[in-house]
Amino acid sequence: MSDDEELQAQGDSVAPVESIDSPDLAEIVRDLSRPQKRLPTRLLYDEEGSRLFERICDTGDYYVTRTELSILRDNLADIAEFAGPGAGVIEPGAGCGCKTRELLSALEDPRWYAPLDIDPSVLWRCRQAMSQALPHLPLAPVCADFTRPWRYARLPLAERRLLFFPGSTIGNFEPPEAQALLRQFHQVTGVGGRMILGVDLRKNAAILRRAYDDSEGITARFNLNLLARLNREHAADFDLSAFEHVAVYDKTRHRIEMHLRSRREQQVSIGGRRFRFATGETIHTESSHKYLPDGMAQLAVGAGWQAWKLWMDPQRRFALMGFEAAR
């Protein structure tokens, strides 16, 4: 039985699982045809990419996960009070759900947990781990791309919906796209719903470059896996040895960028098209914008959220922000 079939077989406590198609070839061809070649960030997260990202989170160079966990653990009581009793918890891009297990354990009478992930294998592992940690909590896993419309209206009832969006994922979007996503999250929770948002804060560029180009080389493998996925799923002919991972900081846009840089002049075929690469030419695969708390609050206000809470580590490297859907 496949991961999708297993998820669908869990019974009434499970939301309908949405099918995920192979990456949109027309979108890929369009993005590779731009003056600055690019590929959609979501394509990084196939089964292998998700596994590698979990390893990145454990590296010494990647401060995000351990800093956010420390903030969560140090403020669990206050965060649970903000969430309120009887919440249904939704987590877009859930991954392994390790942070969420701690949150759910602290909440008063949580009604259900709905992890969303684009990768069914990751969603399956998350469901298994959550079932063992909190066996009496109803689960409603949904296999979906949270950046696109999904059937959130069919989730179970609860006193309120709490959307948990940890990590630095909101930073992967250009600010207008991030605001549009926050507006979509507002629709998911409804007026009076709550959101806890992970926000990576501005800091020294050297710290950021190490985090996105770790000394163990796992981020490089994660980035190059995107090309392996295109070879496998779209019969592309990328030579992975002819590209290298690079991470650069754009200080004017306050963002770290991941690129795949061509080591030599070459041509690559995909979707019946051939793309030329000059030596040193790059494919932009991911951006991670860094914010000040006030800047993120203003962005969220424009999407209908009211900022209520701010939790940070002592070094002000990362923040968890609590919002209420105001209108």
Short description:
This protein has 327 residues and is of the alpha/beta class.
Set down the secondary structure blueprint.
Elements: H1 3-8, H2 25-32, H3 47-57, H4 63-74, H5 76-83, E1 87-91, H6 98-106, E2 112-117, H7 120-133, E3 142-143, E4 160-165, H8 175-189, E5 194-200, H9 205-211, H10 218-234, E6 243-250, E7 255-262, E8 266-270, E9 273-277, E10 282-289, H11 293-301, E11 305-312, E12 318-325
Parallel strand pairs: 1-2, 1-4, 2-3, 4-5
Antiparallel strand pairs: 5-12, 6-7, 7-10, 8-9, 11-12
Description:
Helix content is 35%, strand content 23%. It has 327 residues and is an alpha/beta fold. The protein has one domain: Vaccinia Virus protein VP39 (Rossmann fold, 3-Layer(aba) Sandwich). The longest helix has 17 residues, at 218-234.
* CATH class category: Alpha Beta
Q: What overall geometry do the principal axes of the alpha carbons give?
A: globular
Tell me about the biggest sheet?
A: 7 strands, mixed
The arrangement of helices and strands along the chain is HHHHHEHEHEEHEHHEEEEEHEE
Question: Which structural category do the helix and sheet elements fall into?
Answer: alpha/beta
Q: Descriptors for this entry?
A:
alpha/beta, Rossmann fold, seven-stranded mixed β-sheet, 12 strands, 35% helix, globular
